[in-house]
Amino acid sequence: MLANGAAFKLVDALLEVGSEGATREHLLRKAKISVRTFYKHLKELLEAGVVQEFGNRYRISLELAYVFRYKKWRDLDVLYDREETVRNAVLNIRSDALSLDGDNILCLWLVGSAARGEMKKESDLDFLAIVRSHSDYEPKEGSFKVQWVTMKRTEFTQKLREGDEFTVSALRQGLIIHDKGVAQKLYLSPINKPSDSSLRERESVVERFRKKLFEHLEFEEFEEAEKVLCSLTEIALRSILQYLGENPRGKSHILSLAELYFGKEINEDLAIATFLEVTQSKDAIIALHRKISSYYERFLARAEHLAFVARSLLSGHPVEFEKALRIVFSELFSDASIKGENIEILAYEMGHMLVQGKTLTGVPTQESLEPIVKMLSEQRPSLIGLVVVNPLREVPIYERDFERLENGIQDLTPWPTVSAITSIRLLQIYLDFHLLGWNQENYVLDLLLLNGVKRSQLEELVKRSLSSLKVNLLEWEHEDDTVDNNPRVVYINLSDLDFADDYNRNDGNQAFRIEFEYSATLELNFIVHNVRGWADYAELKVVPGPTKGSIRPEITKTASAVLTHPGTRFAQITDLEIGITQLSFQRRELEDEIMIQMAEGADILELQALSQEGVQFPEGPDSWTLHLASEGREE
Which parts of the chain register pLDDT below 70? Predict the structure, then answer.
């Protein structure tokens, strides 16, 4: 049955994930085998009872004697693959312990960084021994410092029921290097999540490390202070992750989980504080400690609440998922309005956004998003849509293939005014919001839409935004059927636009032009903010044609559309020989201004016509300054 190498890879992957088991996708990645090979060998293993299937997960049957014998053989094989100095040190300590206290030692594990293959020069060798009775045995130290922990069997099983991290890690990551027949029963013992008391106990450990840190700093023992800060960070982060329902293994696993739960800024600080490879100054150590402490304390202040939101967003029942969404958006945005399953947000000049959640057991598809797209296009055309999808909600977070999911999300929304993000991305923003103390709602909105509209869709965005305001550029009537009525999209440089001189240039922004003809040549120029995906700044230029008088009402409509499109922070119309020569609307930090310049012979009726077509003055200041200019005269 295990004559084939691929079968060994599958069994080894199952042994590595332990009693919790794993999904097919996770096992495929760990074993590095194909789906066809997986099912070929899985059938044999299931029939032999070596593997058990429960729901969408598979686990190894450690209750079978020959399976457990294979596990012990594999653990020793892993040890023999370790670096020679580590392997020899472990074997020497085992030999010494068994010769001096062998009758008393029932089971012996190598645990910690040596078992995980993460040993460094300064690392200790960690052992856990299950003993019959108390023993005074202490191993001799050689090339490495040694940590020797002993427990009676009853004490070990009690700690497992309490979710004690050290005993759980022995079963999940430890290597059995000696056993008198008791280890198998211990592996079959139930494992619970950490209790509240054990998590509170860790808070006192963090406090002790803080005192130790400042003692070293007081005596300018910077190297020792750095080691303490590394340990403090690891303990604090492990505690946060356990509140969130994780049971992380070593340091590398802790940081990989942190990358899933937190954003870039927090992770950079955590990585620096966990692996201080360059000696820091006293001020630098203190500054880094303050950051880590701030994250830890802000989390603990709302630990139960944040943990509930995290669980509900990632793996909760659809009802819990919707409840978590309402909590998240009501905290992120003070103006969030919750009506049934829909959440509406008004984020200052960015306009209205409609949020819906989709909780899925599989990977999201375009079909799953079509209802909100249909509603936006038919019932709420002025809103920008955001769909929060919770794919693979039945799969533990560390088993989800996020690279594939994120790539899929990028291609998920072909509709220009609907964006989609995963629930894990929303959770990252939410946790960062609390741990970093954000108070800028627009910045949060930028992050929410980061995975939204792609550059290739920007021209479609403009057409959609204008048509949503009852202005369809493609259906204007014209007398000459030979006139080209199809828009032409041209991507241009910011420097090609006169009005871009005063615009805050950014390499992340993109400009493009839409040209079309209707009794004149019309150009729509847009600078589009690449994060939000809609126009920050727009201009309509008109080159008059032979029937220039007839174009004025349509220009008025287009001006209204550009001006009132959600997210457009500056719009203007220029180069008209009659009627309105310039209309501009600009949002500033403290004041808003609308300016309309009138050509010679024009009158106030043009402004009235413009208002009738739907120009809506934004809410904000109590009064407006309106300038009407003609022949150098202001009224």
Answer: 1-4, 193-200, 276-279, 339-342, 345-353, 360-364, 368, 376-384, 393-394, 398, 401-418, 439-635
352-359 and 57-60: which strand pairing?
unpaired
Classify 45 in phi/psi space as left (phi over 0), alpha (psi -120 to 50) or beta: alpha
Structure-block tokens of residue 274: 């966990």
* CATH 3.30.460.10-classified regions of the chain: 65-192
> Cα 321 from chain centroid?
16
pLDDT tens-digit series, residues 186-195:
888 877 766 6
Residues 580 and 605: their CA atoms lie apart, in Å, by: 10
- CATH code that applies to domain 1-61: 1.10.10.10
CATH topology of domain 196-301: Four Helix Bundle (Hemerythrin (Met), subunit A) (1.20.120)
Q: What predicted TM-score, i.e. pTM, was given to this entire model?
A: 0.60
pLDDT tens digits for range 279-291: 678 888 888 899 9
For 544, other C-beta atoms within 10 Å of its C-beta total 15
- Per CATH, the number for 307-448 is 3.40.91
| Residue among 25, 91, 150, 10 nearest 400 (CA) | 25
Those residues with Cβ within 8 angstroms of residue 188's Cβ, 6 or more apart along the chain or in another chain: 19, 62, 63
